[in-house]
Amino acid sequence: MTATLKVARFPESSPPKACKVALLGFGTVGSSVARLLSARDHELPFQLTHVYNRDVARKRVDWVAEDVQWTEDFDDLLNSDAGVLVELVGGLQPAYEWVKKALLAGKAVVTANKQLIAHHGTELLALAREKDLHLGFGACVAGGVPVIAALQDGLAGDRLYKVRGILNGTCNYILTRIEQSGASFADALLEAQKAGFAEADPTDDLEGYDARAKLVILSRVGLNAEVRPEEVACRSIAGVAQIDFEYAHQLGCTIRQISRAELHDDRLYASVEPALVPQTEPLARVAGSQNLLVSTGEFGGETVFAGFGAGGNPTAVAVVSDLLHIARHKPRENDAAPSARYKVSSDFETPHYVRFVIQDKPGIIAAIAGVLSRNGINIDSVLQKPGCSKSELPFVMTLESCSSAKVSQAVTEIGRFDFLKSTPFVMPILR
Amino acid sequence: MTATLKVARFPESSPPKACKVALLGFGTVGSSVARLLSARDHELPFQLTHVYNRDVARKRVDWVAEDVQWTEDFDDLLNSDAGVLVELVGGLQPAYEWVKKALLAGKAVVTANKQLIAHHGTELLALAREKDLHLGFGACVAGGVPVIAALQDGLAGDRLYKVRGILNGTCNYILTRIEQSGASFADALLEAQKAGFAEADPTDDLEGYDARAKLVILSRVGLNAEVRPEEVACRSIAGVAQIDFEYAHQLGCTIRQISRAELHDDRLYASVEPALVPQTEPLARVAGSQNLLVSTGEFGGETVFAGFGAGGNPTAVAVVSDLLHIARHKPRENDAAPSARYKVSSDFETPHYVRFVIQDKPGIIAAIAGVLSRNGINIDSVLQKPGCSKSELPFVMTLESCSSAKVSQAVTEIGRFDFLKSTPFVMPILR
Fold first, then answer.
1. Domains, chain B, with CATH or none
2. pTM
């Protein structure tokens, strides 16, 4: 049985088109928003008035209502009677200027631009509040999974102190492919690019900058903690090799790009990096390009949200949900929950995984163990798969819970030994 | 590292106590709400004014502010200056009368009473809208997991057509215990009662009436489908035996109490019953007393929500989140999304699992297969564990996808054969 999706839910009366909407950007998400508005036209109170895009002629489609104005001039939108501007051009400039101008001109804004909100959200939200306007950004994090609304409203009664998530579908797709097919990192990346899950320049995804912007937004909304993107440490997933999955499995874990922020005393601990995740954790079960977030509160414990974190349609759902919020609610009057600034640290106290690649000779374990011991770090286990070349031998140490900074310091010292064939690769092990 | 939860987030200025709150009921949830309000007093805009309970003297605690009035007289609350009444007495009466009186007296209401909202929600919500008041019921479904807010707001942009969930922690606890420890149904129930997960009279949980009330609310909020509780078919989990788990595992499945509602053409398909769930599904991974909901939308696909579905603290989070929503927002002005009525059916088109217990003799499979064939039902597989007594032999047939009504009809016919030692036990297999 497949659900028939043509059921008209409101066959008799359409609500009046109370809300005029201008679209700024007509790429994947923009056209999906237009399609969704068109498909639900009879049951939604929105009228699309403008579509802006550079070189707009090549974008024009015939399934959009005839009275929609297509333009390459932002001022056409700014000077129009549209009450809401949906910003989907991405990037910091000119998006920042345009959103600011729209708010100053009395227009509500909905955006899917995570970098804009991560970098300028506090200022823009203050401006929106001052002008008594909505600034919706539910589409910035986890696409169609309504985590912003959930943290901001649904879990508002709790005091959240921890968020952990898989927030970048590209990284998750690549890591899943390496795990499942034994592909090399380079091949998995190429595959992701061919499948449309990774961009030609995948830097922002692989290095963690994309996930970091989302984490900054989640910290603000969920933990009331104000943090700048550049304060959050990122480590690339590019060092993860197939053999790391073999060792991870031996340890009952898998490897995922994990974004996390935790309040502890007067600090915000935050990072985006590849990590070992126990197979029993919800975070370990996210395959392919999906997203998942676990929030933890003092009173309600752990809550899990999962679904499609990207793509035109899921992101369009988030945009239209924000539009509906604007149509249904006045801007918040009593919502000035002041975010606090904390010292930001990535120095999590956690067990660690360290993979060494060495030219084998006697005394290596003793040498490494000596450095660890001098740094006050206890070894938990030593793993070595049989059958590897003695001249380029990978083996793994797991370390008992200690500060990440200590491990970095010890690994730097160990890095000076001449038996090492490459820089040791370190990952935290989540608990 | 454990998060320290004593961090004062708003050390400098407390918001004014704009919102006076009266508590109707001081059991597990009521006292948790009071504790949460007290713990977050410096950062929440609420002042607790009244606590109502029968025989209130034995309820009084010293950690509640001194100026709170303890009373056994509902009229004290009704005639007070409290702006919001939190209804936690449960049951249909007098809760229905009291909530109605509160709304008529101009008080907003927050309730965790799922039966009240399932049976009278439409009328009470209409009354609240008429009086321009909030009626919050986020605590009615899945405790601390904010599914109501998510479906109503976060996914409002989508057109949802399916919800499936594990909505009753007691049933899930019992089924998990049978699965993990091999306990009998009776022993698992006793264990659940001792652990405080099942009530002395567990009828509402086991028969599915508790989950059904939640499903009715989810159908209204998520699918805009108006359905009365008595229209939704329920089947007890009491027939599930340890051997069903053995067969289910052979089929790559587990067994859970599943609540589901699906829009298909002009019908709402809905039921609450034990079902086989493939191990790969999120629904199969809910252990113990947790809750999980999967919603499916035309545009955004599947979204998963999971967490603590019951208990004082998680439910208190939902109540206080509703209170914050009231403090932050005006009641919805343009939210009269009219729910539609559909014909309701439990006749899902699905594969089935049927467990027979027979006195073995030749020709039994042929006899059963004959009845199935006459009813147009195809057998998918026949499973029989070795080593069982010939005089009371359990075996299982799985049937290819067909209507549940057809299977019922055929099983009734088969039930007349004298080789059967008990009524065949039927469960759908989720896909």
1. 19-136 (3.40.50.720), 147-309+338-345 (3.30.360.10), 349-428 (3.30.70.260)
2. 0.93
